[in-house]
Amino acid sequence: MSALCLENVSHNFGTLAAVNNVNLAIDAGEFVCLLGPSGCGKTTILRLAAGLEPLQAGKITMGKTVVANDKADLPPEKRSVGLVFQDYALFPHLDVSKNIEFGLKHLSAQERKARVLETLEQVGMVDYLHSYPHTLSGGQQQRVALARAIAPRPKLVLLDEPFSGLDVRLRNQVREETLRVLKENNIATLMVTHDPEEAMFMGDRVAIMNKGQIVQFAPPNELYSDPENAFVAHFFGEVNEFKGICNDGHVATPFGALEVPNLRHGTAVDVLVRHEGIVLGEKVNGTGVEASVLKSRMLGKSNLVDFKISNELADDLYVKARLDSHTIPVVGNACVLELDKRLTFVFSAKTPD
Ligand code: ATP
Parallel, antiparallel, or unpaired: how do β-strands 2-13 and 16-27 relate? Predict the structure, then answer.
């Protein structure tokens, strides 16, 4: 049984189809990320699941309970869902303990006190029981917001870009802590993010959205190594792109011919190669081509290198490669580049929208 299940959910704002026939099921205890460009409908899905937006079409179920369909629409407080938004939304006039107690009115005073302490213990904030939100750092406020969301012991938590207000170092730490707390409590989570790295880091599965629809829903490694289309390949990593035409099961690229057995003769194709899919080779044969080094940037864990390829198949083609940080090609030198076929994808060329 799914902790959250959306079936054929659509939502319009006037003539705009913000969410267009979305199907999504999240397992108990699973962490799912909704990832996509600005305006693709991520927050609207979260608001529909929370009951903050009335459902127009489809069905939403949590466990065995239908929370919204054409006959019913349970209000947010009846859905047993924890919410954490980008701005933490703590009550400024209540201290940490009162902020968390707010969602525990169904418990006795004694139970409430015990639950507040237990939850603050989990997020490492027990010492701040009587602090007011404005006296806490962003990371501390985020932890309190998480504690408030999980204190009523919901089966599902909805997070909307909860880490975007934190600086990079703190963000990584708070991400790990959040993940640990949610997993320890076996809480299913749907988190909105527009950051592919964050989605890869946190998601058991990631739903990639574009224009109100889910384009692919899969674990991060699958999205990375087996994207369903060019949009996913672009969104979930960095790619070089070449154009080509399918000719008798092959497409000519600046790196030589690639096999495309599933595409019809004459089909226009986009060839996408991840930056990590261009590697230094030994000699020019197969997909090995000569290239000159234009620019090299050391980025800590990798080296981003710009190359120029000029051969009979490509006239001044510029490509980017992500090499390991110990490989620092000298600008102006010639190298041999090869394709890693596992990180090379061929799709029918996208038709203009
Ligand atoms: P972002 O990453 O920028 O937050 P998003 O993917 O979360 O974007 P939504 O906030 O769900 O996108 O919005 C989807 C579309 O619906 C956008 O085009 C947005 O302008 C529109 N929209 C959202 N809320 C409303 C509203 N209350 N009234 C009218 N249009 C809205």
Answer: antiparallel
Go through the chain and tell me how many residues it has.
Answer: 353
Inside any domain, residue 353: no
Asked if 143 and 72 sit in the same domain, the reply is: yes
Q: Whose CA is nearest to atom 26 of ligand 1?
A: 13
pTM over cut 0.80: yes
What would you measure as the largest C-alpha separation in the chain, in angstroms?
79
Please tell me the residue having the least CA distance from ligand 1 atom 3. 38
**What digits encode the pLDDT tens for the residues 202-238?**
999 999 999 999 999 999 999 999 999 999 999 888 8
38 lines ligand 1 (CB under 6 A): yes
What is the 41 CA–ligand 1 centroid distance (Å)? 6
State whether 284 and 183 are in the same domain: no
- 44 Cβ below 6 A of ligand 1: yes
Ligand 1 centre and the CA of 40: distance in Å? Answer: 7
Does residue 50 lie within any of the structural domains? yes
User: Is 16 near ligand 1, meaning CB less than 6 Å away?
Assistant: yes
- Does the structure's ipTM exceed the value 0.90? yes
Distances (CA, A) of 22 to 83, 108, 131, 265: 21, 40, 42, 34
Task: Say whether both 282 and 210 belong to one domain.
Answer: no
Same domain, 216 and 320: no
- Between 38 and 170, the more confident residue is 38
